[in-house]
Amino acid sequence: MTQPMVKKMSEEQQHLVMQSMDMMDRFYDEEFGLLRSSGEESSAHGTRGSAHYALGLLIRQKSGDVERAVRVLHKVLDYQYDAPEEIYHGTFATQSTDEHPPAGHYAWKSFAPGTAYFLERTFEKVSEAFIHKLQEENNLLKEEADVKQLRQLFYASVHGVLPPVWISYDPNWREFIACVCAIASAAFSELLPDALIQRMDEAMERAVQGSVDRRLSDAIPMNTNIELMHIFITHYYGHRLKRADWMQHADEQAEGLLHEFEQYGGTFAEFNTTTYYGVDLAVLGMFRRYAFTERMTEIANRLEHGLWNNIALYYNAKLENLSGPFARAYDMEMREHSSIGVFLYLLLGKGYEHLTGMNCESGHDPMIALLGIDVPAEAVPYFQAHQGDRLVQKQFLELCERDDPKANRNLCTASAWIGENRMMGAMSGSRNTNGQMHPATIHWQTETGERYYLRLIRRETGGDWNSHLRGITFEAEVTPDSLNIDVQLDTAEEIEVYFEIKGPSIRHQDIQPERWELPGLTCTVKTEAPEPTMLMYTDYAEIIYRYVPGKSENRMRFELGISD
């Protein structure tokens, strides 16, 4: 009998597999055949997480694991959308409880690039006009009516007819699940029944064709991590299923991505991102292991090494984190919503297990262990120890996924000061509407080892920072002892621009409008902005500057003088 894959792995790889599988085993619902989405009692079951679990089962191969993996993969395939004329064809429901997206009202293939953007902007305008008309008719809209609630009702009606991306379906589930199926067929075909292999190939025909149609139409632009997965699955299944058109498409897309990457010294549109670099590295590992041609392997190698060099440049080995600014990220802490720590553990080895703590990305760890790492020699010292204080700067061409495709690429500059116990980041040139873009950041550590961060973000009053908001732009610059930010607010919505400061022992009385006395860090603050308010939580504080259209200036400026 063939030795289980996990037995052939290094101690570090085995640690990743076993730790992740222990977690996922607890979430597996034997009766349903998928992982519960959140918590052991959840009634919803996730498809992407279950696909990663199936791959982990094939790697581990304990008694019953292969049979369970087969069942899980069949169950995941049950949730694929087979609707050739719809924009969501070939993708998968994200949860078992998802309703099927509306069908039959959206001839998306006949529309121009940026369809999703133009529809969204159109419905915003229709919604505003609709509410204005209601306001003119006093018998229809009373003064006490909740305008936001009316807007939500309007959009709910629209979304019941047209399939809203990210709400009724997630197009990226095509690529995520297709990558798992590709690895399963490439590495474990001898363990899987012919019926499952055939069913996966048929499902992947739908998934890859839907992915290609999306890419060619540019109806919904692809961020870097999805673009990489798109190229990989099109290349892999083009060769596996003997589709010459897919092979050619993948080759052209790969050459284009490499050209753009090297145009500004080796940078992706999703630049300096704790969240998405982990996905990028995993996919580049898929190319390294399973690419069919020398040229595709060469392109992936240049991208992988260039990406590692970028990570090294913005990494602080003492703080064990990437500095900002972040083009797109959920969290400031590298270990919160990212697999980067897992890759670094594979590089650094024993003693760095703390970098692999459980988070929402940990289901990917068996796959990462299987794919391994390829870090260029010149980058390695930056991950082992601080390589000297430095001011770094790189340019990249961002992608604004919800903007007019004729104006959704902007040349940005990401600057950072990397000191031994403090690092700061500043973004200029970005016009991204995504709240995941973090334009001004500080990380630091006290003499006793406590770690803190500060970030500037924004939200609609009563809303959340992780949203798309138009008309708000940031321009920031950094020096070793200062961080200056200009904010422009050209929007009719009430907006809160705020600094979030996170870490232990932050006290209300130490944060004054013109001076923030934080543990291990002092900020002198000069502002051209409304008077701030402050909210205190258990381990973080918010310093909030509220913009009210028609009452506030539509520009704010912050000058932070920094000393340790």
Weakly predicted, low-confidence segments? none
Helix and strand content put the structural class at alpha+beta
Strand order of the largest sheet: 6-7-8-9-10-13-18-17
| Number of beta-strand segments | 19
- Counted by DSSP, the helix tally is 14
Query: Biggest sheet: strands, sense, closure?
Result: 8 strands, antiparallel
Radius of gyration: 24 Å
Oligomer: single chain
**Distance N to C terminus:** 61 Å
How much beta, percentage-wise?
Answer: 15-25%
Overall outline: globular
Mean pLDDT: 94
Q: What features would you describe in this structure?
A:
- This protein has 564 residues and is of the alpha+beta class.
- It has helices at 11-27, 47-60, 65-77, 115-136, 147-159, 173-187, 194-217, 224-240, 244-263, 274-290, 294-313, 340-348, 365-371, 380-384, and strands at 28-29, 34-36, 45-46, 315-316, 321-322, 390-399, 409-418, 422-428, 440-445, 451-460, 472-479, 482-489, 495-502, 511-512, 515-518, 521-528, 533-536, 540-547, 555-563.
- The N and C termini lie far apart (61 Å).
- The strands form four sheets. The protein has an eight-stranded antiparallel beta sheet with strand order 6-7-8-9-10-13-18-17, with no helix packed on it. Strands 11-12-19-16-15-14 form a six-stranded antiparallel beta sheet, with no helix packed on it. A three-stranded antiparallel beta sheet has the order 1-2-3.
- Helix 1 (11-27) crosses helix 2 (47-60) and helix 2 (47-60) packs parallel to helix 6.
- It is built from 14 helices and 19 strands.
